[in-house]
Amino acid sequence: MALLEIRRISRQFGDTKAVDDVSLSIEAGEFFTLVGPSGCGKTTLLRLIAGFEEPDAGELLLDGRPLTGIPPEKRPVHTVFQSYALFPHMSVAQNIAFPLQMAGTASDEVRRRVDEALELVHLAEKTRHFPHELSGGQRQRVALARALVNKPRLLLLDEPMAALDAKLRQQITGELIALQRAVGITFVFVTHSQEEALAVSHRIAVMNAGRIEQVGVPDQIYGYPQNRFVADFIGTVNLLPVEVRAADQGGLRMFAAGLGEIAGAPATATAVGQRGVLALRPEQVRVLAGSERQEMDNHFRGTVHDYLYLGDVTVYKIALDNGSVIESLLANSLPGRARFLERGDAVEVGWQREAGVYLRD
Length: 361
Hints:
The chain has 361 residues and is an alpha+beta fold. It has helices at 42-50, 92-102, 107-120, 136-148, 166-183, 194-200, 218-223, 228-233, 292-295, and strands at residues 4-13, 16-26, 31-35, 57-62, 65-66, 77-80, 154-158, 186-191, 203-208, 211-216, 238-248, 251-256, 260-264, 275-280, 286-287, 298-309, 313-320, 325-331, 346-351, 357-360. α2 crosses α3.
């Protein structure tokens, strides 16, 4: 039995269906992430789990027992908010101790568990500090320690890294993974950042307009999107319009106007004459040199339209002969050389038939 069962949950505000007939199962010890654009319903779903909102339809079960009607403070669930919601007049230790004291825990036990929590988030030396004396990352750790100190069955995290700068977000992401592994508590994490979702999660649910588009492990979501929304939202993707000319167990033969035939991997429920797109990640597209052309199932001529230097990699935008522009990602692995290609250079790009996913319209 799953730790948390979400069964056909819906929540509507006026004419807007914030959560629309959503069903999910989340396992004990899992790091589960809800990801999607602003307004997709992920925070509303989190608030329904926490008890800050009540569903219009459907049911929530934790350990097989219904949550509907149980107030937030009575649920074995804690939430870490984007704002952290620390008490400014309390020290770090007092903030962490607060939920234990409210539960009537003995003072000796409170001290022991606060010390454990401080060690867990590496803040033992900050016990007497106040929130305004801490960095953003340290305040986030205090909020995590306070949420974990009474060992909830479920920890909900509502975009807890949104206020941090990019480098600190990367550091905290690693710490969050290690923390979840150490405590073994189920985390349900809400973010609009695809990179964070892919980095921290055991499984991901991609949401759009109140509904679940796809659920799966990170490499499945990234490498095998089930529709155009997931392909386009998770990471960067090239979408080439194609028509299916042949489909069998050996793969697909597609046609792209102005380019010609494209060989693709097999796809289920695909029929000749279907129109759709080939979703192709930039790292799957090679800029070919010399004999590499013969090694590729698909290869087409183009011109370097533009490039974006990102330090470790450069993303090249290649204009193909039919006017389509596709991106190719090249690692800047040679010392002292930032770019291999210049705008206007004639090139040839290619990819293997296994690269990319055909998605019907």
